[in-house]
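Journal club prep — side note

Before the paper discussion, L.F. wants everyone to see what a predicted structure for a comparable chain looks like in C-alpha cell form. Sequence:
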Amino acid sequence: MIVFVGGLIGAGKSTVAKALAAHFSLYYYDVDEIKKSVFKTDPDYDHNMQNGIPFGDEIRKTVYSKVVEDLKTLSTQHECIVVDETLHKRALRRILFDAAEEFFEGYFVIWVQADEDVIIQRLSNQARQNHILKDPMAMHNSMLAEFEGFEESVLVCRNNKSIEETLQEVQHFFAAMSRFSMLRADKP
C-alpha cells in the first residue's frame, strides 16, 4: 500500500508525510528529490523558478517515470510506504496511482489543506532550507489555478494548527477505519 500525501505548496504536506511515516515507522519517499535533479534539465528551469511557473507536463512525466522505477524497487523492500507529492493534476497523478496498484497492490490519498492566511504566513515567514522553489507563493498560486479535483475518495486533512494536532486527526481516522473494518468483518 502506498499512502500518498498530497497538497499544494505551503499546505504542510511534507511535514504531515514525514510525521506520518515516522509515527508508523514507514519508508518516506519525497518526489521533490527527483524533481531537483530532473527539473534542472529543463531549458526553462531558471525562468520557471524565478517566476513561480509550474513545470510542464512533459518534464513532470520524466520525473514520474523515475519515481515509478523507484516504486518498483521499493515494493520489493517495503509493504507500505508514504509518498510526498503535490498531486495537483489528474493525468499526472494517475501515473503514480497506476504504479501503486501494480507494485504495492493499492494506494490511499491524504489531501492536506490549509487556510490561505496560514499558507501565506508559512511561505513568507519560513526559511525553506534547501527547497527547490525561489518564490513559493507565486508557485502556490499557479498550481492552485491548475489544480484538478480528485475523482476518487481522499481523506482531506486540515493542517491549520500544530503538526501534532494534524497527525492526531489522521490517527483518529485510521483508528475509526480499523474499528469499522472489524465491525464489517463480524457481519455475515
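L.F.'s comment for the group: DSSP finds eight helices and five strands in the chain. Keep this in mind when we get to the figures.
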